[in-house]
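Readers of this paper often ask what the protein records in our data store actually look like. Below, we set out a record of this kind in full and without editing:
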Amino acid sequence: MTVLDTADLFSPAMRRERVVDWQAPIPAAKAAFGMSGIEAMRAIRDGILPPPPMARLIGFQMRVVEEGRIVMELEPHESLENTIGLLHGATAAALLDTAMGCAISTMLPAGQGAVTLDLKLTYLRPLSVRSGKISAEGKIIKLGRQTSYTEGFVRDGAGNLAVHATATFSMIGGEAKTK
């Protein structure tokens, strides 16, 4: 058995740094309070409202906003990798949780929201920095007064399905337009 020399792994040449800034979330939430969900999602997409801090931390952006459907995009970076050189599974989980929750929001009136009750992901292929631009799509399956159901997909830069998800959300606040 040999002893691994780890001194080089901690050398200054191997150090990376990433600075993340974000807007305070409470003032943004107050600014969005009078908007319907789809108005707020479009305002985030169009840069009228700041994205949530988590989006800035991971680096994803909202690209498509339609009734019942959201698409987020992420240019993967090594700060999201695990120790085997793949994107950590939590990256896809955060993308999908956000996309699916925002898809529900597109159908909600001002003052109503949704919070995640459960999230199930099936990882079909690994993602890495070499995967190219990653997209996460969230779609409503069933919008309800108390509980809503969604489905999500993460695809790599070539369009290959990498992660499939389903989630259940609890509705909070006003009344949903049931479908």
In short: The longest helix spans residues 89-105. The CA atoms of residues 42 and 65 lie 6 Å apart.
